[in-house]
Amino acid sequence: MKAPWITYRPELKVLDCTIRDGGLINDHQWDEKFVKAVYQTCVDAGIDYMEVGYKASKKLFARNKFGDWKFCDEDDLRRVVGDNDSEVKLAIMADAEKCDYREDIPPKDQSVIDVVRVATYVHQIPTAVAMINDAYDKGYEVTCNLMAVSTVQEPELDQALEVIAASPASTVVVVDSFGSLYAEQIEILVKKYKSYLNGTGKEVGIHAHNNQQLAFANTIEAIIHGANRIDATMGGLGRGAGNCPMELLIGFLRNPKFRLRPILKLLEEYIEGLRKTVEWGALIPYVITGQLNQHPRSAMKWRASENKNKFVDFYDSCVSEE
């Protein structure tokens, strides 16, 4: 019997998506000081990647409704990170069919961004592959987040993985969008993704939501079975129930390059105070949608209403829609 948890895999890399995923709570209206603090924490903690926000279409999303981090214009990015003279690679997410990628994503030599993460549902794969190719041709590292995988039929998932594996995407991420998956399902999915990427040099990633308070456990499960690209957020901040908490992940990993103390400092000085103005975590409506494998948008809407603590009514409304 060995104890692999006391060692580490040097090829395992961590991505912080606090600003991007957390921005889904407040339309990305983050104070610049907070974004700078998260960036500096990533630098100080040895985090490999920081996802700063989205590259969303200004034709679809009103610039006066959403904050800077919905669009990640170059001037806004450089106000926060300068030329990013650090080891942290900066990433943006581009949603299939919600990004004017040809016009809005400049060539790599004109941007402080290093990585384009293309997010797609299975029915959007042709568009996603076109976006992956465009970003790769512009000089970026490109990854693919295949969303809502818990709702995808196996033949469709197999076909999607075959197509993505043939693309220039360097990582394909298992995304538990609804926080509905259990460890056994994570194991099956990571092994499936790895089988399609075998021999390509591409990596498998994990992005877990915390509806059933399993985001950290499922992230560990993914790591055990070979996922080497790991998403987490400071304090678990994220849409709805939130994500795998960075402080738990870094506390679990043994790579000496990672440092926990800067993360705890950010939690103390910024994250805990945010709870007064934004809400996230495994609240009962999010638990219900996770258990029912439903999108959390209904739970988010319910939490914003005067009935937010009427859990039975919410449960009945969810069950009646099945």
Question: Can I get a quick summary?
Answer:
This protein has 322 residues and is α/β, with parallel strands linked by helices. The chain has 2 domains: 4-274, TIM Barrel, CATH 3.20.20; 284-320, no CATH class.
Structure notes:
The chain is α/β, with parallel strands linked by helices and 322 residues long. It has two domains: 4-274, TIM Barrel (Alpha-Beta Barrel); 284-320, no CATH class. The chain is 41% helix and 14% strand. It has 13 helices and eight strands. It has helices at residues 18-26, 32-45, 74-81, 101-104, 125-137, 154-165, 183-197, 215-224, 246-252, 261-274, 284-291, 297-303, 311-320, and strands at 13-16, 49-54, 89-95, 115-120, 141-146, 171-176, 203-208, 229-232. It has an eight-stranded parallel barrel, surrounded by six helices. Strand 6, helix 7 (183-197) and strand 7 form a beta-alpha-beta unit. Helix 11 (284-291) packs antiparallel against helix 12 (297-303).
Key features of this structure:
322 residues, alpha/beta, TIM Barrel, 2 domains, eight-stranded parallel β-barrel, 8 strands, 14% strand, globular
Q: H/E element string?
A: EHHEHEHEHEHEHEHEHHHHH
* Overall form: globular
> CATH topology of the largest domain, anyone?
TIM Barrel
How many structural domains are formed by the residues? 2
CATH H-level name of the largest domain... which superfamily? Aldolase class I
By oligomeric state, this entry counts as single chain
Q: Order of strands in the sheet with the most strands?
A: 1-2-3-4-5-6-7-8
Which class do the helix and strand fractions yield?
alpha/beta
Secondary structure tally, helices = 13
Give the CATH class of the largest domain.
Alpha Beta
